[in-house]
Amino acid sequence: MPSGMGGIVRYFEDYKSKVEIKPEHVIYLSALFIIAIVIMRYLGQLS
Known about the structure:
There is one protein chain. By secondary structure, the chain is mostly helical. It has a domain at 20-47. It contains 1 helix and no strands. It is elongated and about 65 Å long. The protein starts with 22 loop residues before the first helix and ends with a helix.
């Protein structure tokens, strides 16, 4: 049974997420997370 659209799939680009995160924020949070891990490892070795 042939498809009505010939196998073409349409994707809509007009979808807006309610939560939007800028790429800069992801980089800052990753750096902060890495720094926190390094600090915790350093403090753990002092005792």
